[in-house]
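Incident log, structure service

09:12 report received: a user says their structure output differs between two submissions of the same chain.
09:20 pulled the input from the user's history:
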Amino acid sequence: MEGAISTTSNKTVRNIIIFYIGTILLASGGGFIMASGQDAGGLLFVLSPLLMVLIVRFFLGAGWQDAGLRFNLGKQWRWYLFALLLNLGLFPLVIAVNVLLGFATLNFSVGEILPVLLAGLATQFVPRLFFALSEEWGWRGFLDPKLEQLGMADTRRHILVGILWGIWHFPLILSTDYTNVPLAIFLPLFLVGTILLAFVFGQLRKLTHSVWPAVLLHGMANTVGYAIVEGKFISFPNELLGNIVPGSLTITILYALLALWIMRQKQVQEKTWADGNNTAVPHPTN
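09:34 re-ran on a clean worker, output below:
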């Protein structure tokens, strides 16, 4: 039995290493193509986690049992609603805070913003949801549960996934005009942001036993974010202090609060489960 467990663990570690190295190589290739001015590089970059998941699950024996592909919608509908609506409230809050603090300026009047934003949301939703699926099937649908199978505790697992996920973004950041902040400052802050988001997305997967709420939350974040960026109705003269991507101080603070909150939900759930199992069962009396 111990030999079988050891063999399974070794196979899991092997598949994790192959998945990550392959994903980084594909992402780096996409970065080089983007740096040459070809848009196809962006597609290769964003599809790299999905491509490697398909390889390790179909051809290297990783299977699909732990992929979290069941929706579990009946029991977990509140988390789906949370995933759908969170960023519709979070991003306006980020913008409002940045404007009030003088870290951002509005280029349109408030009345002009809404139709531009709605048009952007409608245009961005489907492609951004698909791209989020590609990422989340890799990071939360494969890497996170595989590390959990190896016995890695939640906090350590989310930190590791957040670091590896953040590093995967580096080819995109280095090959595009992603930020005006010096990279020596931006990259560490960006990693802090992806670690905090890894807590949110990872716990969402664990709370629901499904990857789909994480896909929806990630997809909505990208949908709203790109609708704002491409709508060009807000400018960030100081991207370090105020921006809507990981790597700015204001949104990092909000992500930290969100991560603390969702970890609290884990504790509440565990306490509820423990209280339910510790309830004394009365024995029949003679």
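09:41 both user submissions now match this output. Likely a transient worker issue. Closing.
09:42 reviewer note: The chain has one domain: 66-272. Residues 280-286 have pLDDT under 50 and may be disordered.
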